[in-house]
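tl;dr need the bound structure. longer version: we got a ligand (zinc ion) that a collaborator sent over and nobodys looked at where it sits. i said id run it. heres the input, straight from their email, havent touched it
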Amino acid sequence: MDHSWDEQEREDVADYLTQGFVFRAFGGVSMCRFCGIGNGEVELTDGSWYRPEGLAHYLTDHGVRLPQVFVGHVNSELEFLEDAGTDTDWWKAQGGSKPEVVEES
Ligand SMILES: [Zn+2]
């Protein structure tokens, strides 16, 4: 545990951990090793790493700090997404932006 971990980085990593695709599901609930609450029953993946879906709880509620190799991975992924920009050409090609109004008779 490390309660001195930068709060913004902890929050960013915790938010990232709540996202992902289901990698595996289990027939029972995982219990938090500290407080005993039910803490998920699947593992999530971002395509590179997989982790229990309840891992964010350990960061936000118990001050757990993850290894720098994983934090670096998350920061790299977040930077990539923030720098990706938005291509509006595809959206504009989909037609007008005003919804069609249907009047009831
Ligand atoms: Zn807990």
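gonna send this back to them w/ a short note. The longest strand covers residues 21-25.
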